[in-house]
Design goal:
Helices cover 6% and strands 41% of the residues. By secondary structure, the chain is mainly beta. It folds into two domains: 43-124, OB fold (Dihydrolipoamide Acetyltransferase, E2P) (Beta Barrel); 138-197 and 204-222, Nucleic acid-binding proteins (OB fold (Dihydrolipoamide Acetyltransferase, E2P)), CATH 2.40.50.140. The protein has a five-stranded mixed β-barrel. 20% of the residues are buried.
């Protein structure tokens, strides 16, 4: 038999290589979850509730977070406040003292109703909660001298006569209050003002970010 009659074995293709020699697929890159956008601040109308401070109550950790507000001819209301505000509140209002609570009614999922405290007035002194570690709120009162608009033409700040610091608020809330916040209108506003860090020198007063706003007989919580 001639050599030409012998069949030549086909060459092994690259595809026939053992699977171990093939490049392993790279694991999928980890996709970072999108950050949840911060909820926009809301405009919450407030009401004044006068009465007398009753008994203080505590949460399951034994920390004061509420008191009973008693008023003649009306059932007592439970007033809720942040636990970190308890020390300042008890120093200002003891049981049996007459106070006015500025706040709004809130109903829990269980159907319980309480008065959410935004500010407490007692004996000519006022106090309002601030976020833990935040500077104490600054209060400014006067008439509006100038309005500040953002590039879209929405109200986001204002300046009062005889005050250098600018009062700021979110533009979407500025739109809701545009009819009330006009030059010449009288208001009282309070909120945090950033303190200078070591080594900083201020060219002008830092803006005050409004958290509590009073316009005539109306009051609003921006939170």
């Amino acid at each position: 038999m001639s050599d030409t009659s012998k069949k030549t074995a086909p060459a092994k293709s690259a595809a026939a290589k053992p699977q171990a020699d093939q490049q392993k697929p790279k694991p999928d890159a980890k996709v970072k979850p999108d950050k949840k956008p911060k909820p926009e601040k809301q405009l919450r109308p407030l009401q004044a509730y006068p009465g007398t401070v009753g008994a203080y109550g505590a949460n399951p950790d034994g920390v004061y977070d509420r008191f009973e507000l008693e008023a003649a001819g009306a059932p007592a209301r439970t007033v809720k406040f942040p636990p970190h505000f308890g020390e300042a509140l008890r120093a200002l209002a003891q049981s049996g003292q007459e106070v006015t609570v500025l706040g709004y009614l809130h109903t829990t999922p269980k159907g319980d109703e309480h008065l959410h405290l935004a500010r407490l007035d007692a004996a000519g002194t006022s106090a309002q909660p601030a976020a833990p570690g935040a500077p104490a709120p600054v209060t400014l009162a006067g008439t509006i001298a100038e309005l500040r608009l953002n590039p879209h033409g929405h109200l986001h700040g204002l300046r009062l006569a005889d005050h250098d610091a600018e009062l700021r608020l979110p533009p979407h809330l500025g739109q809701q209050l545009a009819e009330r916040l006009v030059p010449g209108a009288a208001l009282t506003a309070s909120g945090p003002q950033r303190a200078l860090r070591p080594g900083e020198v201020a060219a002008h007063p830092a803006p005050v970010h409004i958290e509590l706003l009073a316009l005539g007989d109306e009051a609003f919580l921006l939170h």
